[in-house]
Amino acid sequence: MDAAPPPRDEWSTRAAFVVATIGSAVGLGNIWRFSYVVGENGGGAFLVAYLVAVIALGLPLMLAEFALGRRARADVVTAFSFEMKSRRWALAGWLAVIASLAILSYYAIVAGWAYRYFVIYLIGSPAGAGRVDAATHFTAFLHSSWEPVAWQLLVLATAVVAVIAGVRNGIERLNRWLVPLLAAIVVVLAAYSLTLGASRAGLGFLFTPDWSALARPQVWLAAFGQAFFSLGVGLGALATYGSYAPAPVGLPRTALLVAGADTSFALVAGVAIFPAVFAFGLDPTQGPALAFVTLPQVFAVMPGGAWFGLAFFALLSIAALTSAVALVEVPVAAVIKAKRWSRTRATLAIGTLAFVAGVPSALSDSAFAVLRPWGVNILEAIDRFSSNLLLPLGGLSVALAVGWAWPRERAVTSGGLASPSLAAAWWYALRFVVPAAIVAVLCWTALRH
Ligand code: PHE
């Protein structure tokens, strides 16, 4: 006979649940990805589309995913099939597990770049002192046949240590220290950036809407994709973290706090980045290289740039780590349940898998440079595939599970919205608005390829 399973770990308080979930939401998406997506999509106009996406799609989905995990009090695979007539819902759970592994595979690489730049600023040899050097330096690093892999390994190792230590003793403790530190760093950086003399241009770029951009469907598409990625919906992370929530839990309030913190964080990071970029006459529309090439160029010429750089890459590394931890925890929780493995064994297995799966992305400009699906390198290809396909599919399964497969009564009780009209609005959003928007996004993406 099997021994009774150990009692399930949970967050020690509701605040710990909120803080850990903020740690998972605030990540590379808020700093590295948000800043270049804003840069590419018309600045302020993009923000309007982004806020619409967060409120109309992100918040309802976030609450639904919390409800899914919290009701089953289990990993995402169990959560999807719990109380369902068809066992096939477990497939939606496995899809989420695969999506989080796919994202983790390249997320750990970009996080590794952040770790590396942090160390470089720490030992006082800022990467590429001149304007040309920063680009050459970054390219040389990406072309190295081993360096990106070493940093990737370090990122995964730190995340694995936290996950092995457990929900309360590892993940919760890590976030309790690091999330407040993140908030402090980003606020100080933003305040300093505003003193550099180009706050008008920088803030104007970030906040002045060019309404005509809203007529371009790709701006909306980018906004939806960014909202999904940044809030972390559709990958099972919210279901998994929600499943550890202590009773009484207040899911709607948590969703509001997390979405609010995530959005504010991206905005404050924008206030730290754009005025500084404009102050030194650089171009903010450089795509993914913004954080690793444009910003080091800024740091090279700004007063106190070495300190600013150190703090900026500390910010990026910490934000990435607390998100990587969530991406590891999703598959780990699923494997612990499905295979009855110990937490240590499951975490080591998932860490190894993520490492191996990520090596082609880590070496996407060197050993694996010949692989160019869709004309981009393998890291970008996996990013596109997961953000444009797996993430929306994950969101769609959450909306269909809670909005259609669950009886209305169950959805409304589990969502926990006190006001009947809000509860009804939420339920209709899940049934119609969210699936329609996601299907539109998927069709549009398919048509473009
Ligand atoms: N939200 C994280 C970010 O903005 C990425 C992430 C997605 C983390 C899903 C966990 C789960 O970087």
Based on CA atoms alone, the radius of gyration comes out at: 21 Å
Gap between N and C termini: 54 Å
| The CATH homologous superfamily | Hydantoin permease
Question: Which structural category do the helix and sheet elements fall into?
Answer: mainly alpha
CATH architecture: Orthogonal Bundle
Q: Helicity, in percent?
A: over 70%
Counted beta strands? 0
Q: Which small molecules are bound?
A: phenylalanine
Q: Count of DSSP helices? A: 18
Uncertain runs: none
**Rough shape?**
globular
Mean pLDDT: 92
From the 3D structure, determine the CATH topology.
Answer: Hydantoin permease
Bin the strand percentage: under 5%
Say what oligomer this is.
single chain
The CATH C-level name is Mainly Alpha
Order of helices and strands: HHHHHHHHHHHHHHHHHH
User: What's the domain count?
Assistant: 1
Largest sheet: none
Secondary structure elements and their pairing?
Elements: H1 14-25, H2 28-40, H3 44-72, H4 76-81, H5 89-122, H6 131-143, H7 147-165, H8 167-194, H9 199-207, H10 217-231, H11 237-243, H12 251-279, H13 294-301, H14 305-339, H15 343-362, H16 378-405, H17 408-415, H18 420-448
Phenylalanine (PHE) binds at residues 24-25, 27-30, 229-230, 232, 235, 237, 323, 326-327.
